[in-house]
Design brief:
The chain is about 55% helix and about 15% strand. By secondary structure, it is α/β, with parallel strands linked by helices. It has two domains: about 10-120, Trna Endonuclease, Chain: A, domain 1 (3-Layer(aba) Sandwich); about 125-245, no CATH class.
Length: about 250
Amino acid sequence: MPLIFSDPIDWRDLQNKVCLLLSQSGFDAETEKVVSTPRGEVEIDVFAIDPRSIDRISYVVECKNWCNPVNQSVIHAFTTVMNETGSNIGYIVSKAGFQKGALRYIDHTNIKLFSFIELQNHYYKSWMVNFFAPKLESYVERCNLYTEPCNSARDRAVAGLNETNRAIFRALVDKYWCFIFTLEMMAGKINYLMKVNSDVDYTSINWSEFFEECEKMELHFTGLPLSEILIQLRDVLSTITIQFDKLFDDDIFI
């Protein structure tokens, strides 16, 4: 499956991408939050609260963009921060992994250790249903109104066009309908399954069909992270929408 973000370029980029991942997965997250403790103020790389949990579970995240694996002493210090801030769960995200002592130390604790790729995989489903699918659906919605099989408002408006513009409209539909249908079905499927069955494995999405349809539109997305793909789809769908909109004097869907 595609990754959500590209590799961080430095520690600040790692910190910002971790915060963005949590925010887009439904958390209230912020970077470099200053928290008071019995020993004074402590700055936390990323602090997050899950507003969906009854007790507003809190997370502290430490980001290590080091070239060497994180050792056990870092975990000791992090445990102290967790205890003194009253946080429920702690994550340490490391570029170079963790030493064996660090891995042993977290047994029977509320601390989890991740690489950035592992953290993305951990929140993949949550990110897909809370951010990717809703955004994609909002970007493709107006295009779909123009190309879907049945839409009475569109049909009335098209009937009122002159012959030249009707031909342009039909050509646009022929060119774009399969691409738009593929995107609409992907977004709709994710949203629908999320509401019906929360145990669905979103890592099983058929990305090959998605990429093949994008290639037909000369959109070369293979190897790109999903966050960048989503931005490009937003821009492409906006351009397509403008092509349809300019055929009509008014907003035909109001």
